[in-house]
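User: Quick one: structure for sequence A, then sequence B.

Assistant: Sequence A:
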Amino acid sequence: MENVFRALGHPTRRALLDLLYARDGQTLGELDRNLPITRFGTMKHLRILEEADLVVTHRAGREKFHYLNPVPVRLIHDRWIRKYAEPLVSVLGDLKRGLEGGEMSRPSHVYEVIIRATPERIWEAITRSELTRDYFYGTLVESEWKPGAPLRYAYPDGRVAAEGTVIEMDPPRRLVHTFSALWDDRVKADAPHRVSWTIEPMGSSCRVRVEHFDFEGPTATFESITGGLSVILSGMKTLLETGEPLTMGR
């Protein structure tokens, strides 16, 4: 967490995060135009934010887009703020707002988290119902886990929270599937979108990157995922590193 606190300690870096909070997925040039510093200075501050995983990037053609990643802030909340002042503070993971139209290959959300676990163990956490139950809002995932196979997340009482279709599989490195939210009447009207999970080994840990594509505007599903995905990834990290579910009670 030291890198996160260091990154947040400079006003220019906080200003960059505010710019991405206001409109996510901006290029270096777009961000630089809003800061009273040189382009080199903007690049330097963005590099520090990337090293702290507060900003993640995605290339689409020749453009490099920068996205706000709220997961590290969510982890600070879980470790410190919730412990001492949960009744007074709203969930800090709900930082990521805004949607800018663009190419279909450009993600609408990019979240990352570093988990101290093997790629195989993280793959199990994504694809096994006895594990998703403890971090994916109590739902159990079901699929044959092959391209073209249906996928669904269901509550223990059988109610379906979401469903989709497996598009691509490369265990234990990459999973792509469609996702159609069904957990309430607001999201049921939304069209399915595409989700990509990438597991990148980093020594004894792995970087888990989750990208959401193809929203048809700022839908109800988009708004739910904006705040909810950081909780899911924080819960997965806690479960795999401690063996215990993340406690969300006050």
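Sequence B:
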Amino acid sequence: MWTSSDLEWLKENYPGIKEKSDKKLEGSLSFRMLSLDNQFIVNPTLDQIQKTTASDYLYLCDTYRVRIEWENEESYYPISYEVGGKLEATAKRLNKRPIDMHQYSDSGALCLVAPMDLDSTFLKGFQLNIYVENFLIPYLFAQSYYAKKQVWLWGDLKHGVWGLLEWLGRKRSYTNSDVLLTYISLMRYTKEIELKKILGIRCRNHKPCPCGSGEKTQKCHPDIQPAISRLRSGINSGLMNFSRT
């Protein structure tokens, strides 16, 4: 849950968002964000904006109406929603589904990043400023850019289980924590029998992708096999126990 310090920070930096209850924040989130030399700066100074000459310079200002809500007290972080209709309007204009806009189809919740990124960040404690400025605002910044250019700034993981596997498989170096958090996320979103089947897959780049797209694995999900191998190694080493009680 957020603390009094979280709420003081919010009032000082984003006064358009108000506390509706001890579990819910809602209101207008106005932000400025600068992309410069592969770095992203939230609410940059005027000096930073005026002095930049980089070719990849990108500066956007925007406002979204959002709701941030704790729906599960056991979670490490809250869930966010865009409640002003901007994402829905963009999706309608571009003939996209909510899931194509990185929103969960069943609830409309925002898929800010892979859940493993949020889990690892807030495992030792939640901080509202980090959640808002490291995850929520960059997500909305990317949405504003996508509405103009139809390109996702951060790249694009596939939806569902395959995206979770891509996250782990794309890491050039990974830790036991990365493997464990991926396993936990897979357990959340899949049935045990399905997960056993997935972990038994042996992909071949020239063979059809196991996701069922019909494309070859190397063109569809080339990162699946490394992820599966890392998960199997974690199970074999005793890092996680492959069973549900």
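The chain has a mean pLDDT of 88. Residues 128-149 form the longest helix (22 residues).

User: Thanks, that's what I needed.
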